[in-house]
Every structure is written in structure tokens, then in C-alpha cells.
Design goal:
Number of strands: 17
Bound molecules: flavin-adenine dinucleotide
CATH topology of the largest domain: FAD/NAD(P)-binding domain
Oligomer: single chain
Order of helices and strands: EHEHEEEEEHEHEHEHEEEEEEEH
Shape: elongated
Radius of gyration: 21 Å
Helix content: 10-25%
CATH architecture of the largest domain: 3-Layer(bba) Sandwich
Amino acid sequence: MYDLIILGGGPAGLTATIYALRKRLNALLVTLDLGGKTNFRLQLPFVEKHLVITGQEVVGRFANEVEYLEFAREFDRAEKVEKIKGGFAVTTRAGKNHKAKAIIVATGARGRLMNVPGEKEFMMRGLCYSAVSYAPLFIERETCVIGDTALALRATAELSQIASKVTLVAPGRGDLDSPMGRKVLGAKNVEVLQGARVEAVLGDNYARELAISIDGEQRKLTADAFFVELELEPRSQFLGGLVDLDELGRIKVDGRNRSSVEGIFAAGDVTDVIAEQVLIAVGEGAKAALSAYEYLLEAEE
Ligand SMILES: Cc1cc2nc3c(=O)[nH]c(=O)nc-3n(C[C@H](O)[C@H](O)[C@H](O)COP(=O)(O)OP(=O)(O)OC[C@H]3O[C@@H](n4cnc5c(N)ncnc54)[C@H](O)[C@@H]3O)c2cc1C
């Protein structure tokens, strides 16, 4: 039986793994990849490379170390976590059954895609998926946000403080009746296109236009960047109701990254902690590992 199994090798899981190994725990990382979402980086025609510290640079050394330590990681998908005597069992897609005294869940959250022509081609080339990360780059530029939920309204509100214009392509009324929705509707530099659907993303090297339909009419929208801000889907389903989740499906954790089940900890985008950022995931991963370590120190043999 391992002391600790970490699920997910993004910034949170990589940091937790390195901390656990430093504490000499018998730990295993089960993950689909190393780096998680830091493997994606937005490219824009007007942003110079030297101005950016990438997520890969932040967690790259941890990823290299874990890549090298073959005994401490396994590339596989966790499909089930069950409580067993003295700990937990993790069943994987490859049919393995790993056992550990404690678990850290760091499986992140998936951003929903629009699934329209041009999306894959221009993804991260002018088509962005994280306004909270990139909005400050758009001083006096024209931007467009796609979505109508709280996430899209938040992105629109942030961009409206910086950009010259924000067009919100809102498929429905969504959360527009909320306080944030009213703020967005009242902002001078925001245009809300309610009932608008994205048909395609168009461009050259970068996304330059959105083809949309609104009330049966076809239109084209030009902007410096397009933010796809549809719901985030936390990757917590495989836990099958074992731990408490919030209304968005994120694992509820306390200040020490403890879930509702003793011995299960969580960190990063899969939790209800603010906000989806690399440095926060790194810090939360470190906290979760130290918290799990304290738990194991106290646990009876
Ligand atoms: C396009 C984009 C650009 C971004 N840009 C920035 C930025 O500039 N600055 C910034 O601070 N933040 C940025 N973010 C946010 C940042 O990337 C995330 O907040 C951060 O990566 C979260 O780390 P995490 O470890 O919680 O999850 P993730 O990075 O999502 O990692 C999750 C890990 O879990 C693994 N996994 C998933 N399911 C399973 C399973 N069932 N079994 C085993 N493994 C599993 C995945 O393979 C992955 O390794 C960006 C996000 C996106 C989508």
C-alpha cells in the first residue's frame, strides 16, 4: 500500500508529488500527462515572448523530475476511488488497482468548447480560454466574449475595465439578470448580442473574425481576441459522490485542502478555491501535500 496517491499531473499535482517525495513518502502520481493545462499557451500577434513567464517555465522542473522518477508516476486515467480498510483504492483505465492511505485529487477542470469550424485551428491563436489570465493584455483593444453564464459575465466585466470595446456573444439570457449581468448591460463599452450563436471562427495565422447568427441573420464580428468563456467542468465525476461537491461540481475543501472525507485531499482547479491560476494551483498542491503528510504522521499504524 502506498502512503499517498496523487491524481493529476498539472501544476497542483506535480507540486504535491514533489513535496510528497521530498518528505520521503511512498507516493505515486497517476496522471494522463505532465503539466496539465500549462501545456497550452496563448499566442497573440502583439505580445512579445520576453514579456511572458509561461506556466511550463513555472512547473517545468517539477515535470522533468517526475518524468525521470519512473517509480513515482504512472500514465493512466483514474476511473474510480473507493474507501477500503486503512485507506483507499484507485482503479485505473488500464485495469490497475492501486491502494494508498491517503489521496490527493488534482485532476483540474475542463473548459467547454464551442465545437464549431475553425475552433481547433485557432485555439490559443487569438482564441482564448482564460480571461482571468489574459484580460490585462488588452489595453484599448477590441475584444469579444462568448457565453452567458457567470464566467462569461465576469470576463466581460474585467475586459470592460481595460479594452476599448467588448462584444458579448450571449446564446441566451443566462445570468444576465444577476448583479454582474446588470453591470455588464450598463457598461458604455460593452455590446451584448443576446440570442447570438457562433457559427465559425475565421482568420489567417490568428483568429480575426467570428461568423455568428442572430435572429436568423448572419453577421461577422472582428476583434483583437475572442474569449470562449463557457462553463468549466471540474474533473470530479470519477469520485462518484464519495466527497462533497459544490453546485458547480468542484470538490469542497477547507483551508488545509481536506475534503469531506478524512484522508482525501484536493488541490487546484478541481476544488472550490479561487481562482484558476497556475501559481494558485502550485501553492494549493504544496499545501495539500503538507496537509496529507500531517494526516499520515498522526494516523495509527
Ligand atoms: C488555455 C488556457 C490558458 C491558461 N493560461 C494561464 C495563464 O496564462 N496563467 C495562469 O496562471 N493560468 C492560466 N490558465 C489556468 C491554469 O492553466 C490552470 O489554473 C492550472 O493549470 C490548474 O492546475 P491544476 O493542476 O489544478 O489542473 P490542470 O492543469 O488542469 O491539470 C490536471 C491534470 O489532471 C490530469 N487528469 C485529469 N483527469 C484525470 C484522471 N481521471 N486521472 C488521472 N489524471 C487526470 C490531467 O492530465 C492533468 O495532468 C490557463 C488555462 C487555460 C485552459
